[in-house]
Amino acid sequence: MSHPVRSEFDIIFAGGGTTACVVAGRLAAWDPSLSILILEGGQHTLNQPAHVQPYRSGSHLAPTSTTMAFNLGNPSPRLNGRAPIVQCAHCVGGGSSVNSMVYTRAPASDFDDWQADGWESKNLIPLMKKLETYEVQPDLPTHGYSGPIKVSSARYKLNAGQEFIRVGTTYHKRQYAEDTDDLETCNTYSPWAKYVDGTTGRRSDVAHHYVYNQAHNVNLQLWVGKRVKRVIFQDKRAVGVEFTNDPVSCPDADQSSNIVKASKLVVVSAGAFGSPAILERSGIGAEAILKRCDVQQLVDLPGVGENFRDHNVVFVPYFTADEAITMDTLRRGKESVLQEHLAQWEINGNSLVAQNGSEAKIKWRPDDDELKAMGSAFQPRWKEFFQDRPDKAVAIFSVFEGYAGPLLSSLPPRNYLTAFYFTLYPASTGSVHIKLDENGQEGIDFNAGFLDDPSDIVPLNFGYKKIREIFRRMPSYRGEVPISHPCFPEGSAAVCGETTGPVDLDAPDLIYTAEDDEAIDRYNRDRVKTTWHSLGTCAMKPRADQGVVDARLNVYGVTNLKVADLSIVPKNVGTNTYSTALLIGEKAAMIIADELGIECRPNSEP
User: Fold this and answer.
1) Crossing angle, helix 514-527 and helix 457-472, to 10 degrees?
2) For 315-347, what is each residue's pLDDT tens digit?
3) Which residues contact 562 (CB under 8 A, 6 or more apart)?
4) pLDDT of residue 310
5) Phi and psi dihedrals of 241, rounded to 5?
6) 169-208: b or e for each residue (b if 16 or more CB lie within 10 Å)?
7) Which residues fall within 8 angstroms of residue 559, CB to CB, at 6 or more apart?
8) Rounded distance between C-alpha atoms, residue 228 and residue 246, angstroms
9) DSSP label at 558?
10) What are the distances in angstroms from CA 187 to CA 133, 380, 542?
11) Which of 48, 93, 215, 340 could join 207 in a cystine, given CB atoms 3.0 to 4.6 angstroms apart?
């Protein structure tokens, strides 16, 4: 998208992630005369194999990756002294270009819980339908069939997902449904659809379907490798942004500052880490935080950077049958096999290259027996939040068909399965703020908050036990990878190791001693991590309640400045958050179009 360089635009987006691409793409399609600039710190993703080939999604988490930013948290005693690392996307399209492409949607009640005018589920469901083409099943009332984002079930099938579902509906005694993303179904096993084009086998991301496909529009410009430092104000009206070359994307480039003007609007869309940092560098935030960073305060807004939320996930690897087909076939197998799958994918999109490795899930709620087994520490949280909300799951349980986790290079090259469980509504919250180090260089003061509330560890500890019982009954089960499981005391019935096959469906569950339970608790605290679902740090709430933006996404105390990304979400959502980021983009586009007098023409879609 190389066009003549301008010094002024109608609208500037500070950040080129998922939500920004949706908003900019919609506005450009509705009014091609509108001049729009997207400033993105990362690099282009256009037709890049690492971004369009689904099987490569895990590569973005490599320590050397430049398509993700690595945010180091403060050490926490709840994590046994660990300092958590929370990654976020650093490329055009944001999370949509690097995520694991699992299709999940929050219950409709989550949006009603926000209590934000215009954001009620009845107003958002039409936008959820508008953005997607749901290729899995026809004629379902809450799904859409003509939107830019494709949702499909994989044509190239793997087996462990079906095993997971069969054990879940027999041993675990839960129901089965084809669609558990209808905005209300819960506690039911189902296939897991994907943000993958069912015809081409390519990732379905916003960069290609909202922005790159409008490269002909000279008024829509995308500048990559540009880090927005701050918003420029005249009095308290946003009139532009100051930016530099991004030091990660452009390490050898000049770091001097540039300014570009916005005549109508500045939209901060840099995510749960980037957006509060831009506001604070612009003088919007709590006085004490700005003062320690030598930033002149413009607006006292103490909610900036507070309310950090995420989901808590643990990945637990298992051995599987030698004859099983897993993602390890491509990641660690023979080069000739990889080339064969790549060639087939190029022809018709139907090969293991089009897989993300996750074929089944349950949005799990405990039954009475499970709730009793979880003990007293979870009871207050259950009664206060979950008990009378039957559409809200406590966690998602699933299987990844391949190895996911650390120590990959030290493990033998064979087939693995990885169980994972992540909690959807942790009670804990954290914060992220700018700070200066002893050399005057900017960093972040990041408290993830993981497991700070004592109720949050309980479903993780129970999840380890329950999903282990499910795996033990799956036909392809061949035991646990001991180095990546809890270190149970010698002689315990729970000791892990390789085996020759599964137990019977009606076999008794493992019995865990108090010592075993302590080992599981230590294990989860040692290994729990981000689910890459960071949100909430510029919350859409009343200003008196530490809100940062109002229901029209306006930043309190200034004009011509909005925030549009996952940072505005005031409360957690029971879903993988790509669907929520897309939805915020569609809603933000409608809000901005309305304020600018632009007609949202259905025949002018991106």
Assistant:
1) 110
2) 999 999 999 999 998 877 678 999 999 999 999
3) 265, 266, 267, 268, 549, 552, 553, 554, 555, 588, 592
4) 98
5) -140, 155
6) eebbebeeeebbbebebbbbbbbbbbbbbbebbbbbbbbb
7) 236, 237, 238
8) 9
9) -
10) 25, 20, 33
11) 93
Residue with tokens 């089009």: 354
Q: Tokens 């950077």 — which residue? A: 305
Cβ-proximal residues to 486 (8 Å cutoff; 6+ apart), any chain: 464, 494, 496, 516, 519, 520, 522, 523
pLDDT (mean) for 125-143: 97
Q: What phi, psi does 563 have (nearest 5°)?
A: -120, 135
| Token duo for residue 174 | 């839960």
Both tokens of 218, joined, read 């000279």
Residue type, 434: I
How deeply is 552 buried, as exposed, middle or buried, from its count of CB atoms within 10 A (0-12, 13-18, 19+)? Answer: middle
Provide the 8-state DSSP code for 376.
Answer: G
Q: Which of 60, 172, 433, 533 is catalytic?
A: 533
CA distances from 256 to 123, 227, 241, 277 (A): 44, 11, 14, 19
The model's confidence at residue 69, banded by pLDDT at 50, 70 and 90, is very high
Q: Diameter of the chain by CA atoms? A: 73
CA atoms of 212 and 439, how far apart (whole Å):
40
| Ramachandran bin of 285, using left for φ above 0, alpha for ψ from -120 to 50, beta for the remaining angles | left
Query: How far from the centroid of its chain's Cα atoms is residue 362's Cα?
Result: 18
State how far Cα 77 lies from the chain centre. Answer: 25
Tell me whether residue 209 is one of the annotated catalytic residues. no
Q: How far apart are CA 490 and CA 544, in angstroms?
A: 55
Which pTM does this prediction carry? 0.97
Q: Supply 539's token pair.
A: 């919350």
Note the pLDDT of residue 2. Answer: 53
